[in-house]
Every structure is written in C-alpha cells, then in structure tokens.
Amino acid sequence: RVKLGTKAGKAASRVTAEGVIAAHVAGDVGAMIEVNCETDFVTKNDMFLNMAAAAAKLVAEQNPADVAALGALAYSQDGYGPTLEDVRVGLIGKIGENMSFRRFVRKAGKVASYVHGTRIGVLVEYSGDEVAAKDVAMHVAAMKPVALASSDVPAELIERERSVAAAKAQESGKPADIAAKMVEGSVQKYLKEVSLFNQPFVKNDKQTVEQMLKEKGTQVSGFTLYVVGEGIEKKQDDFAAEVAAQVAAASKA
Q1: Which residues contact 168 (CB under 8 A, 6 or more apart)?
Q2: DSSP tally for the chain: helices H, then strands E
Q3: pLDDT single digits (tens) 83-142
Q4: How far apart are CA 21 and CA 56, in angstroms?
Q5: Which residues, in sequence order, are CB contacts of 40 under 8 Å at separation 6+?
C-alpha cells in the first residue's frame, strides 16, 4: 500500500492527454465518459478498459453529481476497491501511469450511442427510429457539428468566423458593400457546415440530416460529442532539439 501510494503520488502531476471514451446505454438512460491516461499503450490495457466501461455504467446507474462523487461509488476490480477511486489509484500503481476521469454526461430518455474506435464518442437524444438515431450518432462522430441548427451555433464561434472572413474580404480590395456581402456569405456558409441538421448526411449526401430524419419520422433533440484529449495541452518532446543541445553542451566542455 505504501509503494502504491508513492507511485500514484508521483504519477499525479503527469499530463493525461491520451485515453478512451466509454458509453453505456440501458433502457431510457445513456451515459458517456472520457477516461484519460498518459500514453496510447495503456488505452489497450484490459484493466484500464474494464475500469472505463465500469465507470460509464456507474454514471448511468448511479447518476453521480461530479467526478469526485463518481470516484466515491462502490466498485472493486483486480484486487482493488472498495470504491472506483481506490481502483483508479491501484491501477496507477500497477500500470505505472497517471489516469483520470475527465468528464462524463448522462441523459435520460431515448438515447443512441456510437463510439468510433475508443477515441470518439457520441450520445444522441431522440424520439422515433433507433436505427436513424444511431446513424446520426455515427454522422456526428464523422462530421463533428458544433450545434443542432444554425441558430444554436455559439456566438463566439460565429464572431471568430466573421473576423476571419472580414480580413479576407479586406485583402481582396473589393468595394465596401461587396466586401460586406462576402463576409455575410462566408458566415452563412460556415453556419450550414457546422450545424447538424444542415450537413449532408454521411450515408447519402444527396439529402441533409434534417431531410433524412423527416423521412424516418425521427426527431433529434440534442447530442454530445467527446473526442479524447480535446482541449488538453500535450507536452511536445522535441528529441532532435534535445540531442542537438546535448551535443552543443558537450563540445563546449
């Protein structure tokens, strides 16, 4: 126990930008979680994968308020326990890498899920046809929309796109009224590209997702997309620069 504690303590400061997405859907409840580790190697470890799957199931069944509450839930695995947090700390000591539960989502109602490999996960809230909803989950994983409809796209993303378009229009040297139309055209194009309902459906690009759903008598009221490590700053090791620095230092000695 002392050994494991020391190992876990040393690992706790290390960046966990790799990991897996796990999902669990049962009845009218769906859950999805991102569990991180340090290297891609550990994402193939059965103990780590079992813990991630169990965590997704616990989120669905127990509805914890946050990551700390999730860790306090009863769970035993590979001789560690009696809580999920104890299992996490135990596996850090056993495997030798830091691991963390980063974020999770839980939805009640009809939910469809899709996990691409282990790195991209989607939950879709819907009513209607389950196959159509699963197709939408797969579409979201592939096309990564940021909102359901154009009107739901966050204002900060629209403003960022508008400023890029304005800079391009200015460079074109066109008259102000034409430049303004160019900017507006670019923004409208962007809104269509990033809103789920307006995107061409991946399985049939002759129709939009909205048209496909209407055809299938299905409504989608929301989706959640997780991509492993999104927003986490990874440590970039420049091996060549490191060697060059060592050689330079040695030549001065």
Answers
A1: 182, 186
A2: 9, 8
A3: 999 999 999 999 999 999 999 999 999 999 999 999 999 999 999 999 999 999 999 999
A4: 9
A5: 18
